[in-house]
Design brief:
This protein has about 60 residues and is mostly helical. The protein is about 60% helix and about 5% strand. It has helices spanning about 5-15, 25-35, 40-50, 55-64; strands spanning about 5, 35-40.
């Protein structure tokens, strides 16, 4: 079964400092590892709208 993850969890996971031990972030990592995450268009757009420069975009692109 696929799981749609809310933008707030993605945002928390994509922040730089100290979020790797956060429970929602760990659950998201588990879902990604198990290929269970489904990202819908509106959530993808919200995440992309938070990118402020080219280097952030490239980093996100490499990890997805």
């Amino acid at each position: 079964m696929k799981v749609v993850v809310d933008t707030s969890v993605w945002s928390l996971a994509l922040r730089r400092v100290g979020q790797s031990s956060n429970f929602p972030v760990q659950e998201l990592r588990n879902l990604i590892r198990d290929h269970r995450v489904q990202m819908i268009g509106p959530i993808r757009q919200e995440i992309l709208s938070g990118i402020h420069n080219e280097s952030q975009f490239e980093t996100l692109k490499k990890t997805s």
